[in-house]
Design brief:
single chain, alpha+beta, 5-stranded antiparallel beta sheet, 8 strands, elongated
């Protein structure tokens, strides 16, 4: 099973809503990044992201989070590749302890899941 994982700090500049809430599109952007690396690793091309067949927003993403985004290759077609995505919060800010306080979560919080399809160029 081929898997690609990235981690990224969610900057406070991305908080758009009360309580430092970040929009769900942030995680989808991370899914695009792991899909691109997956395509490079499997096909030697960045590919095109064709579609999502399912997206579930399960918990909030907050400024100060460390997000881990994973893509798992689940199906290989002639030119299409189906990927299962999961975004998890692995660290979270704790502003009640201080302006820069954060902690590693005992258990990651799954915030977004999705299934998507990428398309790679036809082989020679």
């Amino acid at each position: 099973m081929t898997t690609v994982t990235h981690r990224r700090y969610v900057p406070y500049a991305h908080a758009h809503y009360a309580g430092n809430l970040v929009d769900g599109a942030y995680a989808l952007g991370l899914f695009g990044d792991v899909a691109t690396e997956m395509a490079i690793r499997t096909d030697g091309d960045e590919s095109l992201f064709a579609s999502y067949s399912d997206v579930q927003f399960l918990a909030p993403v907050l400024a100060g989070d460390i997000l881990e985004a994973t893509a798992v290759l689940t199906r290989i077609g002639r030119r299409s590749r189906e990927l299962a995505f999961e975004a998890r919060v692995v660290c979270r800010a704790e502003p009640e302890r201080g302006p820069s306080a954060s902690r590693v979560l005992d258990e990651p919080v799954i915030v977004v899941t999705a299934t998507g399809t990428i398309v790679v160029p036809a082989g020679d």
